[in-house]
Input
Amino acid sequence: NAGVTQTPKFRVLKTGQSMTLLCAQDMNHEYMYWYRQDPGMGLRLIHYSVGEGTTAKGEVPDGYNVSRLKKQNFLLGLESAAPSQTSVYFCASGEETQYFGPGTRLLVL
Amino acid sequence: KNEVEQSPQNLTAQEGEFITINCSYSVGISALHWLQQHPGGGIVSLFMLSSGKKKHGRLIATINIQEKHSSLHITASHPRDSAVYICAARSGNTPLVFGKGTRLSVIA
Output
């Protein structure tokens, strides 16, 4: 039982490049979330999903897109990366209690 | 929007001390969560409560709904308790709103 996994663990991008972060969970959860964590700030919700085929905006959605084509996967896309998107990204799943992935550290130069 | 405030921001304690971390929120909630973020970055849920008190080992979480306040207590603190402790609140069906965290260092 792997829980929540994230790919990749670390990535460096140049401004304007695109990338996709993958989150996978094996707990059959309906709810999945993408957060970003920046120094001095709490976890902030980017997008979330309440079930396969659904997505919703969180607190800081600009510059990101998501897709939930399969229940177990939640993808976060950056179409044109900006230095302001340098952050640690966490995926989580679960409705009452949330289970977090290990995080993806992204550096945009 | 719910505002979640934690205090203190940073806390250093000697091994064995009793520790209290505070969390206050601005609007009524359906649930209050406490999470722990390890030095390596991993985040785990410790408690979810909507009233009263919960205890797990040396950790105790309490909530006062009327005062919109929750506390996390650690008894007989140990260096392995060093971590960032995060409070998060949910109002109705809205997503969790997180505090900025309290960084705890326990010195042997």
